[in-house]
Amino acid sequence: MRHMKLAPQRAHASGSAGYAELLRQRDFALLLGGQTVSRLGDGLQIAALAWLTLQLGGAGAVTLTAFAASVPSLAFGLFGGVYADRWDRRRVMLFSDTARGLAVLIVPLAAAAGVLSVWQLALVAALLASFGTLGDPARTALLPALVRRDQLTAANALTGATLQASLWLGPAFLGLLLRFVAMKDVFTIDAGSFAVALFTTLLIYYRRPQAAAPRRRSVLAEAAEGLGAVRGDLLLWLPTVVFALGIVFAAGVRQVALPVLVRDRLHQNAQAFGLMLGAAGVGEVLGNVLIGRVAIHAQGTATTLGWLLLGLLRAPLGLVPAWQPGAALLFATGGVSALTDVPMISLMQQRSPEAQLGRVLALWRTLIYGSGAIAAPFVGALLSVLPVEAVFAVCGLLTAAIGGGGALVCWKKERGA
Questions:
Q1: pTM for this one?
Q2: Integer Cα distance of 146 and 205 in angstroms
Q3: What are phi and psi for residue 8, nearest 5 degrees?
């Protein structure tokens, strides 16, 4: 694929930029700094919410809370993109962070009153997810207004690295933090992290592009307009479809088949399982950092090629003789996942009309959540009829086939562009 050039990012004169120059840009540094603190708070809160729910109601309550967190993303995800395009995106972020910061305070207030219950925890999970459907697409859609076009890959890579790091560091910090504070106080700390994000977002200078005011339509009509923007561009809809199908096969294997592999085939305990997941997390963080240092001139080819590589690395995982080589493979797949994520986000930011970018991003996120909801039952059904080794092979090869087909089509399209 000689037309998909990957080159180290150099100075501004070469049309690309490294991390140092990117971080010297005031508004991006404010956005990244605030969101890094907020996401670390999220990592603490996610782990604390799961553990507190388990203590109050057992495994069934954890399932209820997880369900409450997933429904809003599917039900309201597309509509969040509509409002991210209708309204000033910085103000949408401010509203979203304020609402989420207030929502997490329900936990310490209810605990202080002695009335904390599983239903309140489920409500908090639902509120956080609901307001997140507004803030997340607005934040990603704002990024092209803060950095140059040639800096988008590096900017998306840095924000992706902080997100992945927070998901792994949050639970680790929680264990240390609980030596000094009660579980309910973790939610107060998370509220404080939202306050930091609010403050840094207020300092960002952003003026919404002036455009002729369109005739205001229904929310459903505007959501459909975002779908039309994707459907009308092969280099948007094909990688989106590949991404959604890749999530079904890859995420389900990680959620359902990997614990079975560790317990039943490798005969290991939760510690080995945690170390394997940790290896994947480290790979994801490093992969994001590395991918941001190259200039990718064929984003559609890159993201679909990432799914091909991920599938090829995932297929033999069921045959590993011990957890250590399994951890090595997961580290590699974690690194490759950056190639599926970062170019995909950059592709949407570069090819979508600015006025519809929030809706395009919201559609992609909604598909991810929908695919994730399908993934676990799908892989669970496979495990009921196939050995775990075969499940890894089937899902890995399907992922590779979908990614390879998508990469070939995107390469031909981008080569002729």
A1: 0.83
A2: 9
A3: -60, 140
**Burial class for 89, CB neighbours closer than 10 Å (0-12, 13-18, 19+):** buried
The answer to whether the CB of 311 falls within 8 A of the CB of 398 is yes
Residue pLDDT, tens place only, 111-132? 999 999 999 999 999 999 999 9
Question: Is 214 a residue whose pLDDT tops 60?
Answer: no
User: What tokens does 54 get?
Assistant: 């388990």
Q: Give strand pairing partners of 400.
A: none
Mind spelling out the 3-state secondary structure of 298-314? CHHHHHHHHHHHHHHHH
Sequence-distant (6+) residues with CB within 8 A of 360 are 81, 226, 229, 230, 236, 348, 352
CB-CB contact of 141 with 273 (8 Å):
no
DSSP 174-241: HHHHTTTS-HHHHHHHHHHHHHHHHHHHHH----PPP-PPPPP--HHHHHHHHHHHHHT-HHHHHHHH
Q: What is the pLDDT of residues 318-340, one digit of tens each?
A: 999 999 999 999 999 999 999 99
To the nearest 10°, the Cα dihedral for 387, 390, 394, 395? Answer: 60
CA distances to 260, 286, 305, 390 from 394, rounded to whole Å, are: 16, 28, 18, 6
The helix/strand/coil state of 8 is strand
**Residue among 115, 104, 41 nearest 69 (CA):** 104
- Dist CA 266 CA 111 (whole Å): 42
Using DSSP's 3-state secondary structure scheme, residue 363 falls into: helix
Average pLDDT, stretch 188-204?
95
Q: Around Cβ 130, how many Cβ atoms within 10 Å?
A: 22
> Which of 303-307, 363-367, 371-375 has the least mean pLDDT?
371-375
Residues with Cβ within 8 Å of 289's Cβ and at least 6 positions away in sequence, in order, are 157, 158, 161
Kindly state the tokens that stand for 241.
């479809």
**What does the DSSP 8-state code read for residue 105?**
T
Give the whole-angstrom CA distance, residue 274 versus residue 207: 45
> Would you state the structure tokens that stand for residue 313, as one six-digit string?
């690395």
pLDDT in the model for residue 14: 35
Let me know: does 348 contact 300? Beta carbons within 8 Å. Answer: no
Position 341, amino acid: D
Q: Apex CA 191: angle with CA 189 and CA 194, to 5°?
A: 115
Instruction: Please list, residue by residue across 114-123, b when 16 or more beta carbons sit within 10 angstroms of its beta carbon and e when fewer do.
Output: eebebebbbb
Query: For residue 400, what are the contacts with CB-CB under 8 A and spacing of at least 6?
Result: 307, 308, 309, 310, 311, 312, 315
CA angle 228, 308, 133 (to 5 degrees): 40
Residues 126/74, Cβ–Cβ less than 8 Å: no
